[in-house]
Amino acid sequence: MKAERSLRNRLAALLACLLIAASAVAEEEGIPWSALSEQQQQVLQGFSGRWDELSPARQQRLATGADRWTTMSPEQREAAKARFQQWRELSDERRELIRERYEIYRDLPPAEQRRIRQNFQRFRELRQDRREMLRDRYRRMTPEQRKRLRDRLRDVRRHHATRD
Hints:
It is built from 8 helices and no strands. The chain has helices at residues 2-23, 38-43, 56-71, 74-89, 92-106, 110-125, 128-140, 143-163.
């Protein structure tokens, strides 16, 4: 269970990195297959026959991913494969929800993104039983209770921000 959550968290982090890289792509022109390095071509050989059919953004994401792949240790590659497999096993609805939440996160100001990352890190540092208790409590809340909690937390953050 703990390993599953850890893997899920790593998958989310990998997805965030991939989406950040994808969002940075603003080019309209594609990357010709011949412009890829030999290492990139080896990693992406499964796309060689249809490379020109891919969108420029997809080509850029794949080229960037191939670069990252070539710099990974064997252990990192195995971990990335496992995270990708987990991603593929998620339902379409779950993947879409993750994408939507990432879009919201990406549009937040850097200070708010930093706050979210810090809160997530604090949560991960909690004892397992405490994390479970907080998750269970949140799951039992009604949508109205969840909204009130988010509003209260937002108000507390604003109050602290104005004091500083």
